[in-house]
């Protein structure tokens, strides 16, 4: 590593450490357990997981879980990029050490898409239609509501339509990956 690269690398690390300290301080003052926002965010994390526990089709648990994990992973990556670039932000979080959108990324969004997927599989309904409707609800109802109560902020130049494009891309990409893995698994089982 060149001296110039080393210097810049150390500066980036120092700024990252400072950012982490500032995030901890912010959480302790504005986003801690004593705020009503903390409890709403906690509710958004726990309630979907409880609902999922009681409603998941246990015969298809791994299939649905694989799809849900895909939604979770791609939504989390998208949120990280969005937050780091100032496209949107979440002023309140469960813990300062977790991503700011943890409740949505790890629970609310993946569980809701999993339950839509499960329902369409079990009732022979059009998965894409209902996923598009869910993406519209998130983009034009849930996110604006979260904005109105101060739990979500859009950055300059970003609209709820941009969020819709993201939701649509994520559900579709997660579905394609799930289908590929199901096909590979079926081929593997048949070859045994």
Automatic annotation (TrEMBL):
Q: Which residues cross the membrane?
A: 36-54, 66-88, 94-117, 129-152, 158-182
The UniProt keyword set, sorted, is: Membrane, Transmembrane, Transmembrane helix
State if Membrane is listed as a keyword. Answer: yes
Q: Which NCBIfam families match?
A: CBO0543_fam
The protein depicted here goes by the name: Uncharacterized protein
Instruction: Recall the taxonomic lineage recorded for the source organism.
Output: Bacteria, Bacillati, Bacillota, Bacilli, Bacillales
